[in-house]
Amino acid sequence: MSLVGPHHDRAPQAGRDGGVGSTKALVVVMGVSGCGKTTVGRLLADVLGVEFVEGDDLHSPRNVARMAAGIALTDSDRQGWLQALAERIGAAHRGGSGLVVACSALKRAYRDRLRSQAPELAFVHLCGSPDLLAQRLAERKGHYMPQSLLSSQLATLEEPAPGEQALTLEITLPAHELARTAKAWLESATPRRAARQSGQQRTAP
Description:
Elements: E1 4-6, E2 26-30, H1 37-48, E3 51-54, H2 61-68, H3 75-95, E4 99-102, H4 108-115, E5 122-127, H5 130-139, H6 150-156, E6 166-170, H7 175-186
Helix pairs in contact: 1-7, 3-4
């Protein structure tokens, strides 16, 4: 059964304009390579009526070359990239314009860096089995990220913890279903009760 799982902390409340509170939504669609961040992020931005930013486009040429060569990025490599993403998020926060960003955001420290520019920033974490992720990467064309880096990303990943205003969705669901579920969560102000020790709830959509 396909499952979804928001953390037990209160979901961000969206106003009639599709955003959190009195402003439009600020959301990072996160996860390892192959999880569908770009596809779901574009769909979510469309239904929310906000701009979409592809985080991969903000990597430096050096970072792109390293990843294309199968070299995993270090925390130091990611600093400039995270700063560029944080600036885009901060500008949207100050302008009340809303934004959906597709970004791996693998570590809590990375998410904290992004959240420093917008305390209301929400995260939608797309997760799947290593086999499914590897299959998707093997079938993907025209992207510089090789399948060989999947294992290092999975090892680096720190799943969102309770209190991070995050929703976890399993990628066995169709992309449009994931976007619909994320939108409904963003528009809900109902606290979710934890059903797992990790603080996540797993319910059928």
